[in-house]
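Dear colleagues,

As part of the handover before I leave the project, I'm documenting each prediction I ran so the next person doesn't have to rerun anything. This entry is a single chain, and its sequence is reproduced below.
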Amino acid sequence: MEATLVEKLKGVAGKTCGSDASCGHHQFEKATEVLSAEHRIIERVLDAVDRLTQAPLETSLESWKKALDFIRTFADGCHHHKEEKIFFPAIEEHGIPRSGGPIGMMLMEHEEGREYVKSMVAALALAETNTEAAKEKLVQNAKAYLRLLREHIQKEDEILFRMADDVLPAAEQKEILRTFEEHESTEVGTGVHEKYLEIARELEDSVR
């Protein structure tokens, strides 16, 4: 089932919709299907980062740069922003709490992840001068980020998304999908989604 969702996501990425917004995410039935499919893509890059932490940095700098670019642009700039700006407010209106509830926890974890990523970016810049302390900081923050995001994804897939599917009417799921499409077109840019799906494939191939 998950593989099918990922293939659907690949197939619609980068398309430009007309005013009727009839393509892209509208090939899905639920907003949670899109978010879950994106999780599968993100997990592939997390697996690549896991392998990078065990590889010599001198031979893997370019892969590290690609991975951090993917995390900042796709995982955070596209995926997390769709959750924060569109999906979370929609389910909050249906009684799933933010303060003291699952939405608040997910938001806190997004911010925690951003701090790890900032530290990784800074460490990678220093590591290019071959300082051992920078390499150690890069790997340390990468491992913390991997633990955080893998657990975060599991909580969303197994708890929050199921709660959302219970409270969101089908018509509203479709409306959220349409808004996702608009976000990718206006905030992320046409073709950017597809570009980062290709980067995920390149990372898998380069760090096997």
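Residues 2-206 form a domain with the Four Helix Bundle (Hemerythrin (Met), subunit A) fold (CATH 1.20.120.520). Residues 1-6, 11-24 have pLDDT under 50 and may be disordered.

All the best with the project,
I.
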